[in-house]
Amino acid sequence: MTNDISDALKTDTNFHNAVLQKCKNLVEVSRSFMCKFYDQWDANDKTLRGERIPDQADAKAVQRGEPAKLVLPFAYAQCQTFCAFMMSLFNQRADFYEIKDSGLDGPNPELDAETCLARDLRQSMFSRVQYQCYLDLCRSSVCVIKHLWLEESVDVVAPVAVAEPEQASLFGGTVPAPTTEPTTGTKFVNQRNKVVSISPYHFYPDVRLPLSRFQEGEFCASEDEFSVVRLKQMQKDGLIVNVDKIQPLGLEALNTRRLNYANMGIGENLKTAAGGTQGAGMCVLTEVQIWITPKDFKNDAGKTPLGDDDSPTLFLVWYANDTFILKAEPLNYSHNQFTYDVGEYSADQVRVVNESLTDVTNQLQQHATWFMNSRVDNVRKVIGDKLVVDPAGIEMKDLQERRPVIRLKPQMAKSGVDTWIKQLQLQDVTTNHIADIEKIWEFIQITTGINDNALGQFSSGRRSAAEARTVNAGAASRLKTIAVVLWETLYAPLGQKLLLNYHNLELDEFKRIVGADAEQDRLDAMKASIGEGMRLEFFDGTAPSEKGYLANQLQELLVGLLANPQSAMMVTQPPFRNLIVEIADLMGIRSPERFLPPPVPTNIMTMPNAPTKPQLPAGPNVGSGAAQPPTAAVGTP
Known about the structure:
Layout: H1 3-11, H2 13-34, H3 38-49, H4 56-63, H5 74-90, H6 109-123, H7 126-140, E1 142-168, E2 174-198, E3 203-205, E4 219-227, H8 228-236, H9 251-255, H10 260-263, E5 282-292, E6 313-320, E7 324-330, E8 340-344, H11 357-383, E9 387-389, H12 396-400, E10 421-423, H13 433-448, H14 465-500, H15 507-514, H16 520-531, H17 544-562, H18 565-568, H19 574-586
Antiparallel strand pairs: 1-2, 1-8, 3-4, 4-5, 5-6, 6-7, 9-10
Helix pairs in contact: 3-11, 5-7, 5-11, 6-16, 11-13, 17-19
């Protein structure tokens, strides 16, 4: 943030309010639309977790030592299977992002960029980010990943030689007297991409467009919760301003947000440096990435602190508790796009937000849950002591105190027990409910495509290997469709942006990633290759089981070829080498070329029993046009 912008935000009220209102108005339009889905997302989360509010009947059942009503975890099973399938499908490679190899010997720019991406994803705990995204897809149909470029630097002091006035030497000449003076500089100790998951509750895109086209919108925003202490430290470091002016967030604003501290019942502890006694409360920080024209925002002196550009520029704006702007600066990323990437369970452009996996299964699960609970209630009634009693012949105190012996009154002792007490016969009308639940479970599997095969369970009956392979491929086809769209809309754009961020990478950090022997020309080659359009490997969506089948088929072909002696001699030639490399790649073996012998040029290969060129006898006429006597070929009788 430049000094002009910082000073204007601190002192110029008109300029500050103009930028704040521009951002707030756009975010509120998005918030008013996105908050309509919060109740449904909350219900989906409870369905997924199997949560329900106990009623009076549940409390009485617990007192009697009986089970309370339950929620059948069908949605949980479907969600966990979906997450497991996606994790295994996307992480079957050695690295999540693989870049098309240039084929050059030795280190190449593609391999260096791939190594940098793998390091950054590992430090960002990308597996956890992935899992959170798949959970969000199941509950909310929307998952959001945000990336940012982090830089940590320190000031270093290094001695520099300075020439002093010349002095006489022992041999009659003059030499400069060397000396050193300390000089300061900046050294980067950490540079990397950071990838984080954003909650759909805290994401505010431009809702005038569907989520699949959110990059075309005017703005994109998200919110997070920060402690005022942390913000004060950032202000001390010169990163933000106006922390002391933050005001508490009102009750109405809290009700339209899903905040962690508000959900925990501690919203009344929201404090700020201005309104709180300790200044250690929480505040809501809204980050807005917005296209604005810098020339449209002027200060009281008529100047433009944001710049003199007359064309839209992508800016980053932070404001806290809807009251004061803390930071405003150009985003300055090489890709010149929002740093958010969005994936959807159903990328249908007809609606802004589409249905999730839990939305699809919710009604069916509710019916199955009702069948199960009614079955339990009816069984409880059937096995209970339902007696028809005539108090004239029974000691009622024995029944009320549930004594093991029920006594007849003395005067009725010889009249027979059946005359005074009899158990009531009840009919169980819920005997078919379990079968109904199994049928509903089949409906859920048909609806979502996550059936027994995707769950790792084979249905009853004998199957051949070909039948099992066909069934598995069919079970995975619907999930792979979601995965391929998710790659093209979420992961591939994210990877390309991460690559472009390496234009800011310095040599010191590059050496820490790829090795201490790396030189500047190697880093420059990687940056140049990225600028020329380095592309990620295409994600074909082939499941591990399908790759194993393809590897077995190619292996059988290779064994058949090697059985022929003439074909076996060609094993070092490119067609055979490519076949072996392809088989190893399908089996998950990385860099199989290191196990193969070096290729042999074709011109020195000699087939067995091949006739050689006849040799002419030496003599004075060799090479002349004179006739020579015939000579037998080598190897002939």
